[in-house]
User: Fold these one by one.
Assistant:
Number 1:
Amino acid sequence: MAAIKVGDTIPEGTFKYVPWSEALEDSLVCGLPVDLSTNEWKGKKVVLFSVPGAFTPTCHTNHLPPYLEKYDQFKAKGVDAIAVLAANDPFVMSGWARFEGLKDKIIALSDNGAQWSKKLGLDKDLTANGLGIRTSRYALILEDNVVKYVGIETDRGVTVSGADAVLAHL
């Protein structure tokens, strides 16, 4: 499948995530995963960025942190929600979100088996590296679930899917 492009409407999908609450400040509390449907993004401006894996070097140090650091800039440009997506399970995504201090600013979504990303043409087979099927590294700006920007990384590193590139397109 060809990758999603500007002007396309995203396919419907449902993700699992653990909503942030003050109880999660206790490292022994896990929280319970709930569903988030892409239908909840209708009528909203959403920034969604995807990483191959929580706690992996580039994702952990170069991709996610700038989104949190520039959170106020995204909000000033009218972004209703920011979400990070990976093929990890919702508990790992919650653990990563807690470690990074995302709290209620960025939603950490589980795209189990990269099933939704596959519908976009943005899954990646990293089995040879011991990681299985993962989400590609990409970013989307959505308005009413229509793609207004898509940045897909074709090489290692973070450029077109990074916070600065996305901010420049808002």
Number 2:
Amino acid sequence: MADAIADTRRLYTKPQNLNDAYGPPSNFLEIDVSNPETVGVGRGRYTTYEVRLKTNLPIFKLKESCVRRRYSDFEWLRAELERESKVVVPPLPGKALFRQLPFRGDDGIFDDSFIEERRQGLEQFLNKVAGHPLAQNERCLHMFLQDESVDKSYTPSKIRQA
């Protein structure tokens, strides 16, 4: 037993250069929800958000995309992921029913502070969902992030990596 001496030498590691330390990451996925715009009047009024994607993951056909989505599109995406995938889908920011009541002293769901709070919640939701490897295979997520319009009558399926 005395003959067994632990080898404590370090493994040889390649010295890190500036490109390794400060170059682009090997895999990245950035999703920003920004630039909220309220459109329409009266009961037809709603807010859209710009969803900007940057990635080098091979599963996405476009490496950069920018689309506009409204809250109901996020609800559709969440429902599709719950129905089609094996992923535990995080909640969306709330519907804010109280803010939709008439005769309020503020703009309700069109109040700047509420829109900003919702924008942050939608961005967190998308980053959690899109960061999950199983969700990245879902056609509904790709359509939501990269197609100009969401085809809600699509045929659910998995994306195959090229």
Number 3:
Amino acid sequence: MSRPWQVLRALRLRLLGPAKELVGTDQFGNKYYRVPKHETRAGQIIQERRFVEAINRQAYQYEMGDFPTEWEAWIRKKRQDPPTIEEILKNENYREEMKQKIKEVSEKDKLLQAKEYKEGLVAEPVHTHVKGHASAPYYGKKEPSPDPTSTASTFQPGSWMPPGSGSSHNK
């Protein structure tokens, strides 16, 4: 490299910092970069920065699981070295195996519970349903009726209001 190019490169590094380096890509096409630790012209040390350039997405559209777990760990600096494709595929296969095993165990457990309920070894869970909200004045009680009710010597007024008595009609 000639002397003028070396001077220009050194000047660019001093003013703008080092260029980003492509570290790898994942199976979805996302590209992962790093900017190495460097010193600014004012003498301030800038730590290494890691980031991803996603394919066909805006930053606000991301959801959990859009990036492979291994790459996310690398970006968050939970691991030093970037993951390999082999490592990602191996871990993905392991996760699929675990999902299948969990499904099988869950099905066996449901069958065992049904058998125990049928034989009377275990009481079935009680399913309660409470209408309303805890802050309502009639929580857990029968909801008020729009019609007035009367039983013997007690009278319960309904929620009916005569027409024209609303606050919007009084002026």
Number 4:
Amino acid sequence: MDSLIPFTTSGALVDCVDRKMLVVLRDGRKLHGVLRSYDQFANLVLEDTVERIYHGNAFAEHWHGLFLIRGENVVLLGEIDLDQEDDIPLRQVDYNVLDPYHKRDIADKKAREDCKARVLYEQKGFCKEGGEGDGY
């Protein structure tokens, strides 16, 4: 009977080791890399890691290499299908070209979130909780 209960702990990651993974962090960064190790807190070690940014129909990658991620910062972890990875309908551009647009998108999103928080606080009585990166 116990074998029918799915893993709900970091033990569920055992099948993901040595596979290419996508990790979305609390601050919105999207990392692609090979999962090499993890622990009971879901801290992750990614190898050959790139950070991917998007704007419109373009993307760019920034090489990071070996990357250690604290488990509490992981919002999403998923395996990348290597057969479909190259079929994305986006064009790759140089990171330095796309970075200013990406930073502007982040600033615009933060301004919208601040405006929304202010309205919720002033008109609906919500509290001003949360800090940097808590809005996932």
